Amino acid sequence: MAEIDFTKKINWHRRYRSPEGVKSEHDILRIFESDRGRIINSPAIRRLQQKTQVFPLERNAAVRTRLTHSMEVQQVGRYIAKEVLSRLKQQNLLEAYGLSELTGPFESVVEMACLMHDIGNPPFGHFGEAAINDWFRQRLFPGDAASQPRSDDRCHNVDLRLKEGEESLNALRRQVRQDLCQFEGNAQAIRLVHTLLRMNLTWAQVGCILKYTRPAWRMEPPPASHSYLMKKPGYYLSEEEYIGRLRNELALEPFSRFPLTWIMEAADDISYCVADLEDAVEKRIFSVDQLYQHLHDAWGSHAPGDLFAQVVNNAWEKSRANAIRRSAEDQFFMYLRVNTLNKLVPYAAQRFIENLPVIFDGSFNQALLEDESAFSRLLDVYKRVAISHVFSHPDVEQLELQGYRVIDGLLNIYRPLLELPLVDFQELAEKENVRRLPIETRLFHKLSGKHRLAYVEAVSKLHPAAQDYPVWEYYYRCRLIQDYISGMTDLYAWDEYRKLMAVE
Asked: Residue 428 and residue 445: Cα distance in Å, rounded?
């Protein structure tokens, strides 16, 4: 087991124009303050205010957006980080672990990772992800000249079609096809930070948002030792070189995770479980009384003084006692949040410290709040009630289906850009106006400038005479469309779909 030394993990260097002359704790803290400024002022954070957490297209300001949810996660992440550092200080381990002058950066990296954790999510959340992946699997690639499509090999196009006698190219085509059908919000966050917004954050800050470690193009099942860490795609083929450099800078083994990412993940788990239930009450999906009964039934066997009694029953009783003076509904959720945090945050910190050797080397193959404890059981109860009574509610399902249809429809609208022959699309990218391509020209004009620039820069690094050039060009063209549509807010996507479909 590697020696625990956080000076090797909290890497304050950047890929471009890394600061020089850093000598003190103050100098390092200023570098991470610069990261905070870059993140808080980024358009990706601002767009979170118009992406809703559970209820798409929600106009009630009391219901959480991705931004307000991320701010809550940020606060919980800070709480856990402070708890970890406080316990390590009590055990006289800060200096031994290389943290004596890095407590500020430790907290800052966690906080900002929490704020950024949802920036790659497309409109309509997981239904948006599903719509993008289903569209690329089922509609963009209609058939294959060399073989019948298989369950893991269904993405085909004129430039990605498997061909006899081209085994080396076929290997790349398979990777590209798999990659394009694995859109995932966490992987898109990495692409946003590095490729699209070019934020040039410190290696430690980017490492903390690399939640999953599976390459999106990987088709083999993950090794059992990393099954949890690789359960979702974590980055795309387009960022492979960058992630390789990041792993080297942070001393991460293949498929291993940055240590502070476990804190960010725990903060998200704690925050959204209570928040989803509170939003459901705000939307009148059920009352507080009904919610309490759902939680009571989901917990199962009860015992005096158990965790359910300490957290949920306590919140219920206090809210009843104060109902004359204040809203029982608001009181219940205030106490429920406080009780949940006061129990789960110390436990998450304890789990982090107890498992620090394997967390430090990045191989701890589960979440901090995923075990056989009552604390994990409490989170599971919150999640099960939300799945049974919130996400399955007809109003929520209708909104999700509408969101799916909007993303699917937008991809169909922009499909002509993906159907253009390579030479025509490159002429359009260069001139931005081609008279013989009236529809494609107007669609191209609607694409974001930063997304178009990312495409141009990626293609400019390729060798036009290379045999694999058409495959790579088409890959980056598909990424261009995914980048644009996934970057929309819920309301913008809805309005854009209605306008382009002429249904206003």
From this structure: 10
Q: Tell me: the pLDDT tens digits for 455-467?
A: 999 999 999 999 9
Residue pair 181/187 in contact by the 8 Å Cβ criterion:
no
What confidence score (pLDDT) does residue 327 get?
80
pLDDT of 476: 98
Residues with a catalytic annotation lie at: 69, 117-118, 268, 442
Place of tokens 């931004």: 67
Contacts of 131 (CB under 8 A, 6+ apart): 124, 403, 404, 407, 408, 411
Q: Are 447 and 484 in contact (CB under 8 A)?
A: yes
Match 């009780």 to its residue by tokens: 339
Q: How far apart are the first and last CA of the chain?
A: 63
pLDDT in tens, 133-156: 999 998 766 555 444 444 444 444
Q: Quote helix, strand, coil % in the chain, to nearest 5.
A: 60, 0, 35
* Helices 394-413 and 469-486, packing angle to 10 deg: 140
Q: State the residue for tokens 């996934």.
A: 486
Which residues lie closer than 8 Å to 314 by C-beta, 6 or more apart? 335, 339
Element (H, E) at 234: strand 233-235
Instruction: Give the strand pairing for 233-235 and 214-215.
Output: parallel
Query: Are the CB atoms for 369 and 376 separated by under 8 Å?
Result: yes
Q: Greatest CA separation found in the chain?
A: 79
**Quick one: which of 175, 385, 188, 408 has its CA closest to 295?**
385
Q: Is the pTM of this model over 0.70?
A: yes
How confident is the model over 398-408, as a mean pLDDT? 93
Provide mean pLDDT across the span 343-370.
98
